[in-house]
Design a protein that fits this description.
Blueprint lengths: L5 E4 L12 E7 L2 E10 L4 H14 L5 E11 L5 H10 L5 E4 L3 H9 L6 E3 L12
Parallel strand pairs: 3-4, 4-5, 5-6
Antiparallel strand pairs: 1-2, 2-3
Length: 131
């Protein structure tokens, strides 16, 4: 890649809960940061799965970081692809999660995946993000 971010929008799945999650990839020197903006839910799971599977085939676990500063809401049903990707790359290091809202940290713990990722800034308690 040429260093410019690649915007990848989740498709409208035609349900009442169509995803508004946006993923923006920043391919940097030897690693990738994926910005997540919007709601993490079941409607976006297939798209997130596709993106993370592609990235996990190119990068080691420690080279992948999800920047969750733009996450506005979290449903545990949308975390399956994150958990799957974290397990796929675990042999080469833990995938990073930066700026995780408390709701996301709690959801990761609820699905038993908190230990699969490296959490940065685990102190975000009252951030207004809903579950």
């Amino acid at each position: 890649m040429d260093g410019r971010p690649a915007a990848v929008n989740a498709p409208d799945v035609g349900t009442a809960h169509a995803s508004d999650l946006e993923l923006i990839e920043h391919h940097l020197d030897g690693h990738v940061v994926v910005e997540l903006r919007g709601r993490i839910d079941a409607a976006c799971a297939e798209h997130v799965d596709s993106v993370l599977r592609r990235l996990s085939s190119r990068y080691d676990g420690a080279q992948i970081r999800l920047d969750c500063a733009g996450v506005t809401a979290v449903a545990a049903s949308g975390l399956t692809p994150v958990v799957v990707a974290a397990r796929m790359v675990a042999h080469s290091g833990r995938m990073g999660v930066s700026n995780a809202p408390r709701a996301l940290q709690d959801a990761l713990a609820d699905v038993g995946a908190a230990g699969l990722v490296e959490l940065d800034r685990p102190d975000r308690l009252d951030d207004g993000v809903t579950t």
